[in-house]
Structure prediction request, 677 residues.
Amino acid sequence: MFDFSGLSNAVIEGDSDQVQTKVNEAISARVDPLVIINQGLIGGMNVVGQRFKVNDMFVPEVLMSARAMNDGIELVKPLLAGGEMTNRGTVIIGTVKGDLHDIGKSLVGMMLECSGFKVVDLGVDISPEEFIQAIKENDGKVLALSALLTTTMLSMKSTIEECVAQGMRNDIKVIIGGAPISQEFSDQIGADGYAGDAAAAVELVAKLLAS
Amino acid sequence: MANLQFTELAYTDLNEFIYGQAKKPVVCSNGMVIGGGTVYPEVNLTLPTMLIDEETMPKVLSQYEEMIHGICSKAHELLSPGIIIEIELLPPCTFNPQWGIDVTKVVKGVMNEYYTKFGLKSLLRMTVVDVREGKTLTHMYKGEHWDNVVNTFRGCAEAGADFLAIESIGGKHLHDEAVMNCDLPKALFSLGVVGCRDMITLWDEIVKIAAETNCIPSGDTACGFANTSMVMAHKNFIPKVFAAIDRVMCAVRTLVAVERGAIGPDKDCGYEGVYLKAITGTPISMEGRTAACAHSSSVGNIAACLADCWSNESVENVRLLGGMAPTVYIEQLIYDCRIMNVAASRGSALEMRDILAESDRMFDPQAYILDPRVVLRISQEIVQGKTHFERTKIAASATIKELRAAFQDGLLQLDAKELKYLDILEKQLKSIPDDEAEFTKMMLKNNTIDKFDPAKYDFNIDSAAK
Prediction:
């Protein structure tokens, strides 16, 4: 039985060199590649997520851990059988039409990526049509909409309405966030959920996809 | 075009460095003098949840009209010696300059009405949104985005704005990445190299428009930069020491507006304005506890120490128990200004300033670096730098030194994580070469075009070093 604690700790520390050493040791010991990823690399990243949630880690530390994990995954990838991958689902994310605020949305995107989701970040000032196109092109399972202005919040509603008009509302979960957004507003416009911060967004996406 | 060089501080005596008094007061045509002894309330407001488009513009304008009526009426009722109203235009009102101009006309119309009927003195600050970003941006200084910014400035000035301001964003995407990664060299490149160069071109244009329209070029802020750090630090996403260092580095970028001819009052959300005041003598607007309606901060009281205008950052037009929110906020601002002004008239301004400073400075490095004593010490170091790059680097180094000394002397609380990052950031700073061209090459090597496209800024290494 391979001991994954060293590998997980290296991910938590964001120590890429050590992660690569430990992954190579696991590969040499003929450990199943998927097990290396799930128990060693993602196992470490899960601890990072928990520590971030309770303010025990800063964002730059989380990003270092994520980079270290990805360096490890790159070593294992060639050993995976065709089709085997660890993507937990694709999230299409962007700031809605008329709004240029970027960093909150980017932070949510990064945290989702760190947690094993594939993220397609469309940027800012995204129209409903652009969101729809990205969902179709990337087989998106979750649509994450951001707004920081009271005058752009209603673009979230228009985007959801466009999903309905395109007949894809039942195939995609929509989450929303941003300074003026609330659960009440989420309910009003028919979103599937609201998250107040990046950690909550990751939990919400995981919950919605599990259901 | 102006190219002022500030190599000495405007203030050498701490006792003169005080709220309500600026070495270079701004005298306005209606008799109000900013920085001339009176702290004025500056109220900032925004729309409630609603779309802005051609169809809703009449409703948008009536919202503004209602808000300004409420504000002016309350200011008149409370016998305020004068007020400033700031409108931060929303993106559609800069993408469509005529809409921004229409807003200006409506707002100024109500302000004029209260002056004519009741003698209420007021000044209008129009803050144009810097829309120079996004997928369709072709160039920072030409094309549709630039034209919209420039045309909105000109139109608002012609429609009656008294002050022109902006929260400019040159280099912001680099800075966002720097904040996420606590990457001090990248933040320095964004602010001290890319940001300062962008400010030169942008503010030359704003100052030119102001001169042609008899309007006052007031100032810029690091809202998209240090305020992002501040909010991230407040959520415990990044260390507070990074946000504090970032704030002081931002002062050099904000200062460029004054070097190019802005005269103040500097904008409220630029907490780095205190450094601007120390170096140039320009009056500043500040926001603190009264800005909790827009965002939380750790500088609620200390931000008032050097304020010449006292602001609420922004509040949306929603109903509170006491009335509509903008009306409620002008009332709070007026009372805050009254107490500061009465303290000054009784000869107690210095005591008031020191109480405000002492009540906050120990609990957060972002508050500590706003203490007037600290501001003067760091500013003295900053002006030793010969270039914007050098000054920004000095700002970081002097701030780290101050924070470390304050912790050691028991003047500032920092936990182990914050101290660890102070070491990390100091190490990062030491890795930055003294030569700007060498540093720029180093930064461009790892740059991706989505974060900073040199072609869109007409950026080249040689001119960066000049």
